[in-house]
Every structure is written in C-alpha cells, then in structure tokens.
Structure prediction request, 330 residues.
Amino acid sequence: MGVAWLDTGSWAIAGYPYLVSHAGPGAPRTSWGRAAVLVLGIPLGLVALAFAFALWAPASGSSDAATVDTSPVAEVVTATPDLTPDPATPDPATEPIGQPAAEPSAAASETETSTAASTTGRSGRSEANRANPALDVVWRVETDDPVFFITVDDNLRDQAVADAALQLVRDNDIPITAFLTTNYVGDDGDYFDEVTSFGGSIQNHTVTHPFFNRAGADPYFEICTAQERLAAQFGDTPWMMRPPYGEPYFSGADPSSVEGAAASCGVNRIVMWSAVVDNGNVSYNPGTTLQPGDIVLFHFWDPKFAEGLQMILDIGKANGLTPAPLEDYL
Ligand SMILES: [Zn+2]
Prediction:
C-alpha cells in the first residue's frame, strides 16, 4: 500500500516527521508537503548551488561553498510545514469518532474510581494507580463524581489557535492530559509544559503515530522510545498511552503485542475515549450528552480547539460537570 512508509523504514523516521513536523501525521498532507518541497526546494536548491559555485569559482575555499550550499535548502525544508496552510480538510490523522469494534463498556475493564482530590499531576501516579498496577484499557471512568476529563492529542499547527486555547486553560484552571507523539513535539515543549500545568500531565502517544495493527508496526520501539524521550524532555515518565487511531481497539485486532509492549515499557493505562470534540462538533460514544466519567478527546491541531474547549466547558456546566485531572482517577 502507498502508506507503508507510515510504519517502518528510515523514511518514516527520518524523512516524514521532518517534512511535516507541524502539519500533523497523515498521508495527504505528506504528499502536500513533499510537493511543496519539490516545488520550492528544487529551484532554491539550484539557486543555492549556483551561488555556491559563483563563490567557489573565483578561487576561494570550498568550505565557504559548502556552508552557502546547504542552508537555503535546509531552510526551505524546515519552513515548508509551517507554511503549509490547513485546507478545508481536517487532519486525516484524526482518531476515529465512530463506534469501536467492541463496545466501550465491554472493552474496558473496571476502572478505578476515586474520589480522592489528591492531584498528582505531572509528578507521578495517583494512589488509585499504585493500588491497581495491572494494565487496564480505559474508555471512560466509572464514577459518580460530577467530573469529566479533557485529553488532547498530537501536535500544534496554528500558534494563534494554541494560544487561544492556552488562555482558556489558564482562565479556567483546566487540567489537560496531553498525549504527545514525540517526533512532532518540535519546538513546542514549553507550550505543552504550560498547558498541562493545571493538574494535567504529558503522556505517551508514540514516536511516529503508527497504525499498530498494520504489519511492520513496532510497538516496543514506539512506546518505549516515546517513554524515554518524554521523560528526558519533560521530567516525568508517562504511565498512560493512547494508541494512534485507537488501534488495535477500534478494529478489534489482537491487542496483545501492543499491550505487552506497553506493560514492559512502564505503561499501565491504555487510554481510549468516550467523546470527541472536533472542528466545533462533539460526539459521544456511548450516550447523547456529556456524562460523569467521560473522557473527551481533542487535538491540538484542531482549528477550532479553543472554541471546542469553551463548548465542552459550557456543556459540562449545563450538566453539572467540571473537568478533573484524569491522573487522579486512573
Ligand atoms: Zn493521534
């Protein structure tokens, strides 16, 4: 298939994230980015070569030529993703909204319920987690507390959108659990640090955002390496992991390799979701409105991320619910 590069190979690791580091995972955007690199990169590269040759030809050293030669090309490559506009198409990498293969209630083992207010946040596992260290797949939290949980995945695309969302988070003290794909963190580490500093935490969303149920996927590399990188960058080792696209749970494929890898990498909560806010719309799975214990999925790259946050706060308020740290309940 044409998307085999998503899973393995040096291209996926070295080339793909480099080309689309701010554009989010996804095949169409990649071809966009690649086309842009071709269109912009080749002419500018030729100009750079000509310039380099002009410098070199008169007699000066080749070291000058080398530095002049490479930088314009490199700039084009790194700048392309930032310049890539977000067309009307939302990100193809979006996790599915539809019904999973297995009902959430069936797929979820019983989830720890806690009324403890001890926010452990970034600093580590909650008491509930330490009391139940076995691996658990969680779609929603079984609780009677008037709370719901806000989780946000992937990477930034638009700084204005990100800033507007951060302002809401600050103003409302919203605990955000961020699931980050390490190849796309880029220069946004400070942002993720701050946006999760209101009772939330930074958790594992793999290195390259692969489909785990596709042949060639390497859950050990994806999960363990992301653990190491997130710990090194943000100071805490994650203990939750959200599988990209919700796989293998949406398709009903065998989860044993993912779960084995997660457990051996130090993850003991695989976190799915029971509601999605995307592009200003909300959908519930199951149910028709926000309920206590719902885990709501957002994406940092959603062009209406801030509006969606405000919307879910309003819906929560109408239903008597407030966002709480997921960390305290898992
Ligand atoms: Zn994702």
